[in-house]
Amino acid sequence: MTAxxxxxxxxxxxxxxxxxALAGCAGVDPEPTDSGPSSSATPLAAEDPNAKxxxxxxxxxxxxxxxxxxxxxxxxxxxHPNVSIRSSSGAATTDDLLQKLSAGFAAGTYPDISYAxxxxxxxxxxxxxxxxxxxxxxxxxxxxxxxxxxARETASPGGRTIGFPALVDNLALFYNKTLFDAAGVExxxxxxxxxxxxxxxxxxxxxxxxxFGTSFDVTGGEGTTWAMWPQLWQNGGQIxxxxxxxxxxxxxxxxxAVQFWRDMAVEDKxxxxxxxxxKAIGLFASNNIAMLITGPWALFDVGGxxxxxxxxxxxxxxxxxxxxxxxxxxxxxxxQDRNRAYWSYQFIRFLTDPAQDLTxxxxxxxxxxxxxxxxxxxFQAKAKVTPGYELLATNxxxxxxxxxxxxxxxxxxxxxxxxxxxxxQGEGEVKSALDEAAKAADRALADQ
Length: 448
Known about the structure:
Elements: H1 5-17, E1 53-58, H2 63-79, E2 83-88, H3 97-107, E3 113-117, H4 121-125, H5 134-137, H6 149-154, E4 163-167, E5 172-176, H7 177-183, H8 194-204, E6 214-217, H9 222-234, H10 252-268, E7 271-274, H11 280-285, E8 291-294, H12 298-304, E9 309-312, E10 328-332, H13 338-351, H14 354-364, H15 377-385, H16 389-394, H17 409-424, H18 430-446
Parallel strand pairs: 1-2, 1-3, 6-7
Antiparallel strand pairs: 3-10, 4-10, 5-8, 5-9
Helix pairs in contact: 2-14, 9-10, 9-17, 17-18
């Protein structure tokens, strides 16, 4: 997320540690996610496009980002003087928005537009309070296919598109050139395998100097969970069964993925086990961690610390270097007012247009929403001074699978994340622990 670089990290932890049942969700049983438009949707149309309209927008951002977004509001309302937009962060932190939305649904005080973590998509989509803009984004003029498939699918829980992606990201491999050079080890390449990664991490670890080959988040939150999904997928596994009703992360492919990291952590002792999800980036920047699997939010910290670093694809399995993406959203809410619905959509379409996104996400340091932006002068200027920025943008093509957007994902992720965290710290056996986590995940899926 864009609120602040540390906040994006905490969101990965908190999004699954504080699951909330949204008011109005009872009785809703969303179908499996589909990124295509809903067949029953019709384009939004204003009853009177010239009528005075006031929209409420919860941005989820802190002061620096809020200033940029306030300028976007001013530009849009200048073009459309009948529209006014009350823009604010919406809550003390972005993590608090879900609880505030839940309360707002019950009280009728929810906004027209809100920032939302992608992991909330299923709950919000099932609330009965969101707009369906499936038919609107199917318009070729929107160029919906310029946005990565993972982001489009996250915005479309149950086959209903409830908003536009607000932020896209992915995981890649950052490496500390200072530590590699000191050890005389060659830098990782785009062809690196996981076995090579493990051998390199072991070679670069030096506990006597508090230097570790790599790191892993063991908070048990979403940071733990989503970092493991790429290896599961590369091994040929899936998170869920094809009908999305039961967990399959305890397959042989899933066991191999977790066993790999357990062996690195317990046997090789080459993994810094981050108990907070906050320390690893700083330790990488200060030359205490040689390789870090992280995302674009780390660029701010390592750049500010003037760390000599590089970025490449995740290690691969049989040439498969796929990654995971965790998109966040601008979700649109229904107030049974056609004019508000129409202008909410028009504003977010304006905000996510390439010309606006270049002066919002790219300027602020996030990845561009749309593939067409990569050829722009603004993007190229950013890439020139930010090592790894262009690779992270093009790496979205390697996000071939999506994190599930079924309602039970929150409980599934919590069960899996806690099991992985314990295993990497030497507790239990991998297969039996994952089997127990899968049972807990199945209960969470069945409860929705």
